[in-house]
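Help needed: design a sequence for this.
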């Protein structure tokens, strides 16, 4: 069982031909409401890869929250630990995508996570691997502390967030896996290698940074910086690639795969997602990943 801790949001996605040069009314070619947020996205991606997933976080008792529970449950994610906070607003985004795939996002974070009750770590019993994002700090800190004590492998999805938050989380996570902007926030002014070194110095057993089409780099304490290129695929939509990567990596950790095999598995899963339009709901299943790895 993968336990995820963090953010769930409702994304209103509008596809348009071109961004207007100045604010105006622009007709959309296509509209879809989907669930978003790092922990929620990784949860859906992991279910598609065959994992049993429980999501821990908080949403409001509003319509957006109803939508999220419906959507995530229909995707196979266990939402029983997703708190419905009375009177709180769920996170909602307007995501506008042009014909070239460029994205503009307007986000209202809502106050559900800020007003959530403390995470009762008792509900993590049975967890084989934990993944946390930085959007629900008290929940992530409690869960990562629990995992360290319980000897359960843990993964931080280190996306762009306040430096102090990322530093506190990296000190508790076994694997601290950053996006490029997340690593820059974690270690401002540092090179990639120095950033990875800083994550290891703070206590992580493995530090990594995902680099989009340039693949991934990672390091263990005292070891060299290792890297893998991205799988050479025709990318049509990289939306959700990072979430699929984290989901796949968490599953590889649960299986105790060697570092390079784990990274290759995650890169293959993320590359398959990039080949298809749409979000994590269009992520690959495990057989597709194995097939790409065997090719
Ligand atoms: P995020 O979405 O969090 O910014 P990245 O863009 O770094 O994450 O992508 C995560 C992983 O997805 C990369 O490490 C890589 O393995 C894979 N990936 C991303 N873009 C591509 C691409 N164009 N082609 C193949 N793989 C990709």
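Sure. Designed sequence:
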């Amino acid at each position: 069982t993968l336990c995820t801790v963090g953010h769930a949001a409702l994304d209103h996605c509008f596809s348009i031909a071109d961004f207007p040069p100045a604010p105006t009314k622009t007709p959309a070619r296509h509209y879809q409401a989907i669930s978003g947020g790092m922990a929620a996205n990784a949860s859906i991606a992991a279910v598609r890869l065959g994992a049993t997933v429980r999501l821990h976080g908080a949403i409001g008792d509003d319509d957006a929250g109803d939508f999220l529970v419906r959507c995530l449950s229909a995707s196979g994610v266990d939402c029983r630990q997703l708190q419905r906070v009375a009177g709180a607003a769920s996170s909602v985004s307007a995501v506008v995508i042009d014909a070239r795939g460029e994205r503009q996002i307007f986000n209202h974070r809502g106050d559900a996570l800020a007003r959530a009750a403390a995470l009762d770590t008792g509900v993590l019993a049975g967890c084989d691997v934990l993944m946390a994002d930085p959007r629900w700090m008290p929940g992530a800190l409690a869960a990562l502390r629990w995992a360290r004590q319980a000897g359960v492998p843990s993964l931080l999805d280190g996306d762009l967030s306040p430096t102090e938050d990322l530093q506190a989380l990296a000190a508790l996570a076994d694997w601290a896996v950053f996006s490029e902007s997340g690593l820059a926030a974690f270690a401002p002014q540092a090179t990639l290698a120095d950033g990875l070194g800083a994550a290891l110095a703070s206590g992580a057993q493995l530090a990594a940074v995902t680099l989009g089409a340039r693949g991934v780099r990672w390091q263990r304490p005292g070891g060299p910086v290792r890297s893998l290129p991205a799988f050479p695929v025709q990318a049509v939509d990289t939306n959700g690639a990072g979430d699929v990567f984290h989901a796949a990596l968490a599953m590889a950790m649960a299986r105790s795969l060697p570092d390079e095999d784990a990274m290759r598995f995650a890169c293959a899963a993320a590359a398959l997602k990039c080949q298809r339009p749409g979000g994590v709901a269009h992520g690959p299943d495990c057989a597709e990943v194995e097939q790409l790895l065997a090719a």
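The CA atoms of residues 44 and 281 lie 7 Å apart.
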